[in-house]
Every structure is written in C-alpha cells, then in structure tokens.
Design goal:
Helix content is 33%, strand content 28%. The protein is of the alpha/beta class. The chain has a domain at 3-76 and 102-170 and 254-322: FAD/NAD(P)-binding domain (3-Layer(bba) Sandwich). Strand 1 (3-10), helix 1 and strand 2 form a beta-alpha-beta unit. Helix 1 (14-25) packs parallel to helix 3 (104-117), helix 1 (14-25) runs parallel beside helix 6 and helix 6 (284-297) runs antiparallel to helix 7 (303-310). The longest helix has 18 residues, at 312-329. It starts with a strand and ends with a helix.
Length: 378
C-alpha cells in the first residue's frame, strides 16, 4: 500500500509514538513505521522521573487523548534512592519527587495504542528498504511506498535510517538487565545505583512490580562481557543468576548527533539523536520530549530550524552530562568517589529531586550547587 503524508515517522518507540500522537492531535497526516509488532519488549530500566511523568500528563496525554488509564502502566513507585560504590552504601535519602517504574513492553504498547485510538496509522513489522531523501520517498519491505514532506527518524541507537542519511553516529554504550523476583532477594525495596561495579558505568536495581529490574551498563567494548558482570552482581545479592533471563541493548554514548547537516526536511529524535543523560542513562524523558518537539515543529513553516530550537535545551543538557561524566566519573579513584559522596544523605535527596527528577540546574554547576546547598543558599 502507498501513502502520501505530511510527516513520516520511522520508529514507534516513545519518541516516534510521542511525535505521532502530537501530529494526530494537530490533524497533520502522518504514518508511523516500525520493524516490530507490538507489544514488544525493550531492554530498559524503565524508571520514569517526575519530568517524564509531567510530559505524559501535561503535554502528551491530554484531551482528546484520555490519560485516565495511565496509572495502570506503572508497575511500581519508589520514594527512596540509595547510592553505592562496589556494594558499599555511601548515601541515601527519601525523595519528594516519586520515581515510577514501567515495563517497556507495556509502556511502549500503551503509547502506540493511544496513537491508534485517535486514528493514527501504524505500519508494524515493516522496515524501510530504501530512503530517498532527495525525492522524499520511503520504499517499504512490503513493496509499498511513502511520500512525505517531512521525516522524523526515531529508530533507536543503532538507527539504520540515520546511517542511510549520512549522519555521523554517536559512540555506543551497552547495557544488560534481568528481572529477579523480590521473593528471591533479601534487600530493602528502594532504587539503588552502584557506581563501583562497572568501569565508566553503573549498576541499577529498580523495584518493578513483583520483581526487581537489575541491570548494568557502560561504554561498549568488545572485550567486556556485561552479561557475566551482571551474573556476578546478582550472585552478590544472594540469588542464582542462572535462573533469570538476561537481555542486552545498545545506547547512545557521548555527545548528541549534529543535526545541522542534511536536508531541512529531516530531524532525528530520541536515541537516534543521541539524547540520553550520560550520567544516569535516562532516555525516556528525552525521547518523549524530542518526539513532541518534532510533532510541534512539523506545524511550523521552518521544520528543522524550529525543531532544533525546541530541543536546544535538551541537547545542551546532554552535552553537560557528558562533560560531567568525563571530568568527574570516568576515571575517579575509588577513595575520591567515596569521599565526595559518602554520608551526603540530604544532598543525595536534593540532587535526585532537582537534577534527576527535574532539570532545575545545569550539570556544569554541580559543585557550585553543592557548596550553595551546604551554606543553605539553594
């Protein structure tokens, strides 16, 4: 089947679905293309921060899209964060901004079904075999064609569409995760981040319904076996790692993709654009926000210019997280790391509520913020 639309969106994850919903609500002809059939799984810790929740409830899922069933998507909620280094607890605190958990198999399917419920066209189990940017035409795996005026590329960290368009790919990180029943572990129910187990990366333990989502990740290297490291970590918690299935996935690492090059009719969103917090690994917020921005920019005369202006703060924030990671986390000696974080319980809560849950401060000001916090100025 052939389509003639204003906007074609490649990839139906959070970025693509958010873009499709935004376009559909504005009455702009679009089509959403994905290689998978939903519901499908996705390796991801699935932790939603307060800013992500706000994008969902205040920007994306508002009338005429009904968000009353959003609560059914969350499988857990936490109000405590603990920081570790190699199994040693350094600091922890209750947080005011709740940390909600989702399973991506449920969350992504929820967004796709919201898109379809308002008349959106989803082409599942469909790949783009040829991307002709000059003639603005996509040739699909089923033989169909899509003529578009504007194109949103949101097909993930490895993005074949980004490669076909000639954009330089970001570096990659790799993460692997598993789900362990809470009954199999004798640990407190809270969000845990452990920075001392993986070089240039971290371990996470997120409450997720009847389970804990346990995973780790760092810069992708062929000589690193992250699945073996995860087994070692799960065993350190007193569980048998061979009982649980593990899944892995790539994430963008480093600076976002430079989108100033290429056709004015094309933008990249979500992981395909490299929009991931390089300190926490958070990507869902940036995916949703950039997807909404692409949908809104498509309603303006100057598509790419408008989009780059809208995602400018996101791109800047990601760059700052990368600078912070390289300067303070990449090769930080264990003793220095422990001294910097150890015992900073109140600041841990403040940091989570203001930097992780929200984007109230820049990573470039972390040391200034810490000094101001100690002096009661922030």
């Amino acid at each position: 089947m052939n389509y003639d639309v204003e906007v074609a969106v490649i990839g139906a994850g959070p970025a693509g679905s958010a873009c499709g919903i935004t376009l559909q609500k504005a009455g702009i002809a679009n089509v959403l293309i994905d290689k998978s059939r939903f519901p499908r799984n996705k390796t991801c810790g699935g932790l939603l921060t307060e800013k992500t929740y706000r994008v969902l409830t205040e920007t994306l899922l508002v009338d005429p899209v009904d968000a009353s069933d959003l609560g059914d998507v969350f499988c857990d909620v936490s109000d405590r964060l603990d920081l570790f280094y190699g199994g040693e607890r350094l600091a922890g605190s209750k947080v005011e901004k709740k940390l909600r958990s989702v399973r991506r198999v449920t969350f992504d399917d929820y967004l796709v079904k919201k898109f379809q419920s308002i008349g959106g066209t989803l082409l599942e189990e469909t790949t783009v075999e040829d991307l002709d940017a000059e003639n603005r035409t996509l040739t699909l795996s089923d033989g169909g064609r899509v003529k578009y005026r504007r194109l949103v590329v949101a097909d993930g960290a490895l993005s074949p569409s980004r490669r076909a368009l000639g954009f330089e790919a970001p570096e990659l990180a790799f993460c692997t995760e598993t789900y362990v029943p809470k009954a199999d572990l004798d640990i407190k129910e809270r969000v845990v981040i452990d920075f001392g187990f993986v070089k240039n990366g971290y371990v996470w333990v997120f409450p997720s319904g009847d389970d804990y989502c346990i995973g780790l990740g760092g810069k992708s290297k062929k000589d690193r076996r992250y699945d073996d490291l995860l087994r070692e970590y799960v065993a350190s918690l007193g569980a048998d790692p061979d009982k649980y299935k593990m899944r892995g996935a790539f994430l963008p690492f480093g600076r976002p993709v430079d989108q100033r090059k290429g056709a004015d009719s094309v933008v990249l969103a979500g992981d395909a654009a490299g929009f991931v917090d390089q300190v926490t690994g958070e990507g869902i917020y940036f995916a949703l926000s950039s997807g909404v921005a692409a949908g809104e920019a498509a309603q303006t005369p100057d598509f790419k210019k408008s989009y780059l202006e809208k995602v400018g703060p996101i791109a800047k924030f990601v760059v700052e997280t990368d600078k912070f990671r390289v300067k303070y986390l990449k090769n930080a000696p264990a003793a220095l790391f422990r001294r910097a974080i150890g015992g900073k319980n109140a600041f841990t809560g403040f940091f989570c509520d203001n930097m992780i849950a929200e984007m109230n401060y820049s990573y470039s000001r972390v040391l200034e913020i810490y000094r101001g916090y100690k002096e009661g100025k922030v």
